[in-house]
Design goal:
Lambda_DNA-bd_dom_sf (chains A, B), 16% strand, homodimer, alpha/beta, DNA-binding
Chain lengths: 340, 340
DNA sequence: AATCTGAACGCAAACGCTTGCGCAACAAGG
DNA sequence: CCTTGTTGCGCAAGCGTTTGCGTTCAGATT
């Protein structure tokens, strides 16, 4: 059907091994033979079979990327950036969408990436068992989310600092009743919601504000969850005058809930999010910006570096990317206290 | 390093061919031997090498998916749904992010998917040359965007009907100056913007409204482009009282532009979008909903069906998914004409 | 002129599977 | 009891590369 390396070899009057060396830029081939082979290969439309090549060489030139949900902006953006880096380096990307628990479980028990990839980038937080499974692959590993874990290169952000800047901003505006919409019901072993919560509590304590557990609600990291959570917060006896949402998507859900309750933002309630979603600007959301695409690209680069230096041991590296508070239109000082 | 089929064969006291047949559920293996092999394979942690398997069988159990920009909601959502279908059927997904023209060109000249995939799902519109290149792969092809083309199964929507329902809605509300923000500067050979434009013109003509070329602006399918386009439309001598944006992202850009100009939606200007973006609901955008995820899933299913029936020729099939107008809060009758 | 040294290239053995074919062993039919 | 099928399994030939090693040969060194 399609041309093989032997067809090229025959047409060029050389051996298959010479063709292989020539096309991959190895030494030991004279310039004229190399050129000749290049010409012949081009006119035969020859491409080396990856299956055969990886069977023989042991390298697949393929990276496995694990994603909880490709459709979500954050993951899509990270994936996008990572893919660019990988493909520029000649690597292909095998995508695994591990949304549901069953699919996820199946993936980690069968481990279909075994013998298929040279490295794995995980955009989801593997629990201990899962990360052991990944380590058993014997390839470099990286992740862009969650805390550090042995064997993984992780690039992330300073969740504490981000949260602090957001909540402190609300405090500085004069708010005293500050709610939080968190993503606690996400996967276990995910340190992000916990760190952000701790930072939130610390800032409140620092400001001498007593913590009211009724002012925390779970938003599940989705728009709908954020809406539900905000609705809950509005139902408490003394509702918050400001809300810190642990993600922009939840913040947007909160905005929707507020609009449905005919409350004005920021006059009645201030809202601050986290991520700087591409549409945060559209809705004027004040938020903590993190370099999402950069994290994907950086993780990809670190992985490639490990592939280039096969000697070095997996360095459990940790990279922190900068965050910054972006002020827009959803935060303002609280209204002067009315008669209730 | 990791167990091979021969290790399993030896440990189970059978030949490698029997292991192969047993593990893949082929006939010609007694139940007891099959069980024995399953046990041994499990405790050895054996997974067949895909490289070796596809080299020997000619099948890769891999689907190539071509995407212009994974980070964009539409494509991320289609990809997400398609991947679920593929992986449920035992296929892996190779992702190619073909954002920039150079990358795209490189892809189609080198065609790295050759001998690597059993089928290709393209979320971008190949021009004639590109689609010829894809056909040369000799595998089933499908796309979820753009018009029909030989050799491709395409699942899409009725762009005409969608646009008509949107523009007619504005007409019915009483609008006479109806602008359009289009995505014309996208890739050539893309029929979508053209069809939508034609439908827009037809509805206007039907309603006896004269078409004003100054009321059309290019929004490049992005939020920023939509904002620019809306700004242009506001600058014409008699600005529109309503705008039809060919995508929700451009519509959101338009909303931002309107807010910056201190114009109220829908009181001063009505806006209707297209797609039903996940956040359209958050901003209350009236829009034409299309089943984005369903399109990805359906395209994937059709591809798999072709893989199961190798006999049938590529059927240049065309599937139309339903659309519907979703009324929210960005459309209303025009203001009664003031003295200006 | 004999020897040595690289560079350029071919040989052939992997790599780990799949699969057509052949061969027992055994059951059923005459 | 001898055929004719059927079932269960092993043999071995690929699949298309890569790569260690061996060979050849031109030019440099004695």
């Amino acid at each position: 059907m399609t041309a093989s390396i032997n067809d090229v070899a025959r047409a060029a009057g050389v051996s298959a091994s010479t063709v292989s060396r020539a096309l991959r830029g190895r030494t030991g081939v004279s310039d004229e033979v190399r050129d000749k082979i290049a010409v012949v290969a081009a006119q035969l439309g020859y491409t080396a079979s990856r299956s055969a090549a990886s069977l023989a060489s042991g390298r697949t030139f393929t990276i496995g990327v694990l994603v909880p949900y490709v459709g979500r902006w954050f993951f899509g953006t990270v994936l996008d950036a990572a893919e660019r880096v990988f493909s520029a380096a000649g690597y292909d990307v095998l995508l695994y969408n591990l949304g549901s628990p069953e699919i996820r479980k199946r993936f980690f028990t069968r481990l279909p990436v075994r013998k298929r990839v040279d490295a794995v980038l995980s955009l989801l937080i593997p629990d201990d068992e899962e990360s052991a499974a990944l380590r058993s692959l014997g390839v470099p590993l990286a992740t862009t989310v969650g805390g550090t874990r042995p064997g993984f290169t992780v690039v992330g952000i300073d969740d504490r600092a981000g949260t602090e800047s957001a909540v402190r901003h609300l405090v500085n505006l004069g708010h005293r009743r500050i709610g939080m919409i968190s993503g606690a019901s996400g996967p276990l072993h995910w340190t992000t919601p916990i760190e952000r919560r701790n930072a939130y509590l610390d800032v409140l304590a620092d400001a001498g504000i007593e913590h009211d557990p009724a002012l925390e609600a779970d938003g599940d990291y989705t728009v709908e969850g954020g809406e539900r959570a905000m609705t809950e917060l509005l139902a408490v006896s003394r509702p918050p005058t400001a809300v810190y949402a642990q993600s922009d998507e939840m913040a947007m859900g909160a905005l929707r809930a507020l609009r449905r309750h005919r409350l004005r933002v920021p006059e009645d309630v201030s809202v601050v999010g986290f991520d700087d979603h591409e549409l945060a600007d559209v809705v004027g959301l004040t938020t903590v910006a993190q370099p999402v695409a950069d994290q994907g690209a950086e993780a990809a680069r670190l992985l490639l570096r490990q592939l280039d230096e096969p000697g070095a041991e997996p360095p459990t590296e940790q990279v922190q990317m900068p965050i910054r508070l972006v002020l827009r239109e959803t935060t303002a000082p609280p209204r002067p206290r009315g008669p209730q």
